Write the structure tokens for this entry.
Amino acid sequence: QVQLVESGGGLVQAGGSLRLSCAASGVTFGAYIMNWFRQAPGKEREFVASIDVSGGSTAYTDSVKGRFTISRDNAKNTAYLQMNTLKPEDTAVYYCRAAYAVRPTIYYWGQGTQVTISS
């Protein structure tokens, strides 16, 4: 079955960095657009970043542009989110999502990883 497993979350001080990983299994990884979303307490889940199947095209929400970098390694079936210059407002549960490129209505979610930024 399809599994997306996020890792790399934790507690860091403002200004610090974290790298999240999303390891996929049960899917042809190279056929899926990979996304990162986040959900802060009391807020709706929001889009953070996206990368196309080849890794040649990325997109970010405005609040993380210049600080976060999404990447993927198709040989390792893994997507990454490098987060630098972290701010307290980045505190959230971070989820990865794999969306089938030829039919994006087919998608899968990971279980999430907690990121907490202290001021």
In short: The mean pLDDT is 97. The CA atoms of residues 30 and 74 lie 6 Å apart.
